[in-house]
Amino acid sequence: MEKIIFFGLVIPIMAYVLYLGGMAIMNGFKSKEANRAEKEEAKSGGRETSENSDEQSSNLSDELTKLNDLKEKEIISQEEFEKAKNKLLDN
C-alpha cells in the first residue's frame, strides 16, 4: 500500500519536473534564436553604415579633386582653395 501511495505521488511530480525542464530548454532555444536574429540584423545595419561612410569619403575626395582642379586652372586662389578645403574637412 505504501508503494502505491509513493509511486502515485512521485510519478506525477517527476512528470511535472520533466515538463518544466523541457519548457525551460525550449525557451532557451527560442531566446538563442532571437539573439542570433538581432545580431544578424545589427551586422546588416553596420554594413549599411560602412557603405554610407565609404560613399561620404568618396564624395569628399571628389570634392577635393574638383577644388584642386580649380586651383590648378587658376580659377580660384590658393587662399580660397584652403578655405574651401578646411570647410569640407570640418564637415
Secondary-structure element order, N to C: HH
Fraction of residues in β-strands: under 5%
Termini Cα gap: 87 Å
Shape from CA axes? rod-shaped
Helix content: over 70%
- The tally of strands reads 0
Biggest pleated sheet: none
Q: What would the average pLDDT be, to the nearest integer?
A: 84
- The number of helical runs is 2
Low-confidence stretches: none
Oligomer: single chain
Radius of gyration: 34 Å
Number of domains: 1
Question: Helix/strand-derived class?
Answer: mainly alpha
Describe this structure in words.
With 91 residues, the chain is an all-alpha fold. It has one domain. 92% of the residues lie in helices and 0% in strands. The protein has 2 helices and no strands. Helix 1 runs antiparallel to helix 2. The longest helix has 71 residues. It is rod-shaped, with a radius of gyration of 34 Å. 1% of the residues are buried.
